[in-house]
Design goal:
The protein has 78 residues and is of the alpha+beta class. The protein has one domain. The protein contains 2 helices and 4 strands. Strands 1-2-3-4 form a 4-stranded antiparallel sheet, with no helix packed on it. A hairpin with a 7-residue loop joins β3 and β4.
């Protein structure tokens, strides 16, 4: 269940994790932590596994398990 408002109709809500709502939008993962426009952090999918941000790393592992995206396969192709 969503915790916060998000006004982008293109974004796909995936799930709520801790104090974040997790969205996928094109090639970006968005972690929303409030209703205000600037209350989110985002990262491009290609950088998801390389980030030092612990929240994004947990989200990446969950996304791979859920098979919404396949970062490992995309990385191997390059």
């Amino acid at each position: 269940m969503k915790q916060y408002q998000h006004d982008c109709e293109k974004c796909l809500f995936v799930w709520s994790y801790r104090n974040y709502d997790v969205y996928l939008c094109d090639d970006t993962v968005i972690l929303r932590y409030g209703n205000e426009g600037a209350q989110y952090k985002s990262l491009l999918l290609p950088w998801l596994m390389a980030t030092s941000d612990a929240d994004f790393r947990v989200v990446a592992r969950h996304l791979i398990r859920m098979r919404h995206i396949s970062i490992v396969n995309n990385h191997k192709e390059k």
